[in-house]
Specification:
The radius of gyration is 22 Å and the shape is globular. The protein is 78% helix and 0% strand. Helix 6 packs antiparallel against helix 8 and helix 8 packs antiparallel against helix 18.
Length: 409
């Protein structure tokens, strides 16, 4: 799928450039495409410099949390909920702790770090699978929740905004929180409906109802604020949450007599290895996207969508954020490339860039998650996983655009 997507960028760009040359007489289009190719290669390296530091930093802190027992405590706290939502998984099974690690990494916005943990969790769930070629209910629920990717602290998106010169990288904290909550809720409800999960069980309600009420109250508070107040509150909560989490990990680690420095270094080494492996993918996708836009192909497609939106009498500013939304189900690296390219083209704090960043943080890469997680354990029949995951993705994108109009419109 990634081969088709990547090749499609270049073929479409070539056709658009030929049309501009032969029909429009624009012979400079090829020079612009070559310039974009090398400019994006250089940008890839610049982004990677900061990405090395970000992943190294957060995987270091996550290792402290793991050794301090925070992750195990979360697994024990969530065990009653998992027993109702995943009745086929025995209490205390290693998959529960691994899933908790995966959700924690996703919540921190460390999608690349979450993948290895998610693969280990899927393998543990596969040990309980009586039909190895068919996804179990527990595997489907885990995958859909992973694809919806509840992101409480999208540090990677903060990093991209910082790299592009944003005065306040955490400005999108609250919009992403609201959009990712919508996608996760849609994913959970769709799977619960198909699998007939006991969401009305007192135990499940005891977990989910306070969260739902808290989010509803929080959104009611947000609805009473002006756009300027919303932006200020988002920035404050983003920075406050980020630093509070660091203090929590280090403080609990020290209290539990964990050698916090050694634990941090151990996790940081893993972060360095993860980041190092991303550079080829980032170069490939950023260069393809740069050529795609320089050829005019992206502009043509967006102009057609914009015309349709305006014909319906709707505001069309969100259209410039759609490239990130359209490629997100297929490729995380392509979506990151589209996000960075949107920031460069329209400005890091433009409405298009803010909406694209919110879309990027609202969900995970559905088809990539399906291919990698099910492929790693040999599952061939996904059952209702695809439909539920795509519904969650759609809910996240729609919520992201709506929230951005409320915050930044």
């Amino acid at each position: 799928m990634l081969n088709t997507l990547w090749l499609g960028f270049f073929i479409t760009a070539a056709l658009a450039a030929l049309a501009q040359w032969l029909l429009g007489g624009n012979a400079q289009i090829f020079a612009a495409m070559v310039e974009a190719l090398f400019a994006m290669a250089r940008l890839s390296v610049e982004v990677m410099v900061l990405l090395f530091g970000t992943l190294t930093l957060w995987l270091g802190f996550l290792r402290i949390a793991e050794r301090a027992g925070i992750v195990d405590a979360l697994a024990r706290w969530l065990a009653p909920l998992f027993r109702r939502l995943m009745p086929d998984v025995p209490s205390g099974h290693p998959a529960l702790g691994l899933m908790t690690l995966n959700f924690a990494a996703n919540a921190l916005g460390l999608d690349n770090a979450a993948t290895p943990m998610g693969l280990r969790a899927m393998r543990a769930l596969q040990e309980l699978n009586p039909r190895p070629d068919t996804a179990t209910n527990a595997q489907i629920l885990f995958l859909v929740l992973n694809a919806s990717s509840l992101t409480l602290l999208p540090v990677s998106i903060f990093m991209y905004r910082l790299q592009q010169g944003a005065p306040d990288p955490t400005l999108v904290f609250l919009p992403i929180l609201l959009a990712t909550s919508a996608s996760t809720l849609a994913g959970l409800l769709s799977v619960a409906l198909v699998q007939r999960l006991p969401l009305w069980s007192p135990v499940v309600l005891a977990y989910l109802l306070p969260v739902a009420l808290g989010l509803a109250g929080f959104m009611a508070l947000l609805a009473s604020l002006s756009a300027a107040a919303l932006a200020a509150l988002s920035a404050l909560l983003g920075n406050l949450t980020l630093f509070a989490l660091v203090l929590l990990f280090v403080g609990v680690g020290a209290w539990r007599r964990v050698p916090v420095y050694e634990a941090f270094i151990d996790g940081a080494k893993e972060g360095f290895d993860v980041a190092r492996g991303l550079l080829p993918y980032l170069v490939a996708m950023l260069c393809a996207v740069g050529v795609f836009r320089a050829s005019g192909a992206l502009g043509y497609g967006l102009d057609a969508i914009r015309w349709c939106v305006q014909w319906l009498g709707l505001d069309a500013r969100f259209v410039d954020a759609l490239p990130t939304a359209l490629v997100k189900p297929f490729s995380g690296s392509a979506a990151r490339a589209m996000l960075i390219e949107t920031m460069q083209t329209h400005g890091v704090d433009s409405f298009a860039a803010l909406a694209a960043a919110t879309v990027q943080g609202s969900t995970e890469t559905t088809f990539y998650v399906l291919a990698v997680y099910f492929g790693a354990v040999g599952v061939q029949r996904a059952r209702h996983a695809v439909g539920c995951a795509l519904l969650a993705e759609l809910a996240g994108v729609v919520a992201a655009i709506a929230v951005c109009y409320r915050f930044f419109g």
